[in-house]
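ok, trying the design again with the full structure, not the truncated one.
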């Protein structure tokens, strides 16, 4: 379990990113520090100017001090421009470094871990939460340090005017700290709830927008609208409570500062009445108190916002410390000579869920064509994904040509095993770019040959730009059969010894399915194949069929024979075919 971050552990976690840009951060800190020093000296300079005119009528000194005052203001403007330029650069680069680490981690993230992560949460983490880290470093580390230094200087200088005024000003600090801590912890909890609600909402919204046509066709607009309202109500409730806590803390501080300010006015009025304070000094004291109350209130707001940001940083920390495929222990190269696969006493279950497999055994002979069938939820896809290293067995092991899969590297495993899924992964790019996903060094001649063998070359050549034709997001311009043929063409380019077809034709019509099956025949020649299917027509292409039931292989045999001898096989596909043609 990952640790819970606090203010200091959050700083420690972010420090590795700070060190990369330590020069820029040092310049920013120095710029704001000197700018804060100018805030201390400006009221002093202004008070001297007032006293030189009011009490001494010393015009030459007044003008010299005025010149110093103007130079200080000009220098302050230059410093402000300099620090803001550095800040703008770091706002981009610092967040980029974190986003890069998040994206790299997601690419290698453990498949079992990702199965429990919401898509909207990952998107928010990579985009919004990374920017919050930069705000935390600048506002809650650099600004907090500078403001603390400024407060110390202000209090020390006011003590020089009068210890009574210094004590009154000093009272503001502990009271403000008490209010900040009291409200900050509560606010952080509400912000964590807010983050969870927003992640759930974004994931839901992504699913709704992806299936908008289906929602319209099913007449489910009212259901979608009701879900939208429920998500919004949850977010509104948490947001209102969090905002109420923040406003309450700010107003409590305002009341405290007003009471202290009335007391200070009384003290300075008495000192002025006793001729113990000049007009210039009075002006400086009031300017310092105004600056001090502003700094304290600003620091309180920063602390409350820091608690919010720590919840975002916590999420990044948890993600970056989640299990990845880099933890895979196997290092040897998998060498597939025949393609014999053995599942030996496999037991597996997702975290906090019942076991899917318990003591499953299955042997697939070289160049065998076997169909995995069974009811939904029996783990057919999970078993296939264990073969490519997505999931690790809790007990037992998988063996390919005498090599245990856990002893082999994931790279060599996936070089020797190809997979074709129902939803073919296609990016918004050209056909050639999508074909090269599995093999980046493929030549145009090799791509043409692969497309020819997959039966899609004629269609590609009919397009204006051939292989350089852009196919749009998710291959929007291609039919389901054409997408499957592109997936088969990728298999030819990759040339693996073992192929998995995961319900690759379940969404196609019967005629297109027959065409794809014909393309399969050549692709499967000389290879070991596992076909996960819900259609009897796909199962009959295989030499054997294995029925998964209750975490084990319930039956194993020739599909043609099982049609006649297995009641479970007949029942399973009678139901499936009825659903298919319903």
């Amino acid at each position: 379990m990952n640790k819970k971050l606090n203010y200091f552990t959050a700083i420690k976690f972010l420090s590795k990113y700070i060190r990369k840009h330590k020069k820029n951060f040092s310049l920013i800190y120095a710029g704001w520090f000197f700018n804060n020093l100018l805030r201390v000296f400006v009221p002093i300079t202004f008070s001297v100017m007032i006293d030189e005119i009011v009490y001494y009528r010393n015009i030459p000194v007044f003008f010299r001090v005025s010149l110093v005052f103007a130079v200080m203001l000009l220098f302050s403007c230059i410093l402000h421009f300099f620090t803001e330029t550095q800040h703008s650069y770091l706002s981009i680069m610092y967040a980029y470094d974190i986003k890069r680490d998040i994206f790299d981690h997601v690419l290698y993230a453990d498949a079992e871990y990702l199965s429990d992560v919401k898509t909207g949460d990952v998107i928010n983490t990579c985009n919004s939460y990374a920017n919050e880290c930069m705000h935390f470093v600048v506002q809650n580390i650099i600004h907090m340090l500078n403001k603390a230094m400024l407060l110390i200087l202000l209090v020390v200088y006011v003590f020089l005017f009068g210890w009574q005024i210094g004590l009154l000003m000093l009272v503001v600090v502990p009271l403000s700290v008490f209010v900040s801590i009291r409200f900050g912890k509560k606010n952080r909890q509400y912000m964590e709830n807010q983050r969870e609600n927003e992640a759930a909402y974004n994931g839901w919204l992504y699913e709704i927008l992806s299936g908008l046509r289906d929602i319209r066709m099913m007449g489910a607009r009212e259901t979608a609208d009701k879900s939208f309202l429920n998500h919004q109500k949850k977010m509104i409730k948490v947001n209102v409570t969090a905002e109420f806590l923040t406003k309450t803390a700010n107003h409590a501080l305002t009341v405290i500062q007003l009471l202290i300010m009335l007391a200070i006015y009384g003290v300075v009025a008495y000192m002025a009445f006793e001729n113990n304070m000049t007009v210039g000094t009075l002006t400086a004291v009031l300017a310092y108190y105004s600056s001090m109350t502003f700094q304290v209130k600003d620091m309180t707001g920063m602390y409350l916002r820091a608690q919010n940001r720590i919840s975002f940083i916590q999420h990044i920390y948890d993600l970056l410390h989640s299990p990845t495929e880099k933890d895979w222990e196997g290092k040897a190269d998998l060498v597939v000579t025949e393609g014999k696969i053995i599942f030996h006493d496999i037991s597996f279950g997702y975290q906090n869920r019942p076991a899917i497999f318990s003591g499953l055994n299955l042997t697939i002979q070289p160049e065998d064509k076997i169909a995995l069938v069974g009811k939904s939820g029996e783990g057919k896809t999970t078993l296939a994904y264990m073969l490519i290293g997505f999931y690790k067995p809790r007990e037992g092991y998988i063996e390919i040509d005498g090599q245990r899969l856990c002893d082999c590297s994931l790279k060599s495993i996936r070089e020797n095993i190809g997979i074709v899924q129902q939803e073919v992964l296609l990016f918004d790019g050209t056909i050639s770019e999508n074909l090269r996903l599995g093999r980046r060094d493929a030549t145009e001649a090799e791509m043409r040959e692969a497309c020819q063998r997959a039966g899609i070359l004629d269609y590609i050549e009919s397009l204006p730009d051939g292989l350089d034709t852009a196919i749009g997001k998710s291959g929007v311009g291609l039919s389901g059969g054409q997408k499957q043929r592109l997936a088969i063409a990728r298999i030819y380019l990759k040339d693996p010894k073992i192929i998995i077809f995961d319900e690759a034709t379940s969404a196609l019509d019967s005629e297109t399915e027959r065409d794809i099956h014909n393309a399969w025949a050549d692709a499967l020649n000389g290879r070991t194949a596992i076909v996960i299917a819900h259609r009897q027509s796909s199962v009959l292409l295989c030499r054997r069929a294995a029925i998964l039931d209750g975490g084990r292989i319930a039956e194993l045999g020739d599909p043609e024979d099982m049609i006649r001898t297995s009641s479970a096989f007949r029942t399973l596909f009678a139901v499936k075919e009825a659903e298919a043609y319903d």
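Keeping the full-length input from now on. Residues 575-582 have pLDDT under 50 and may be disordered.
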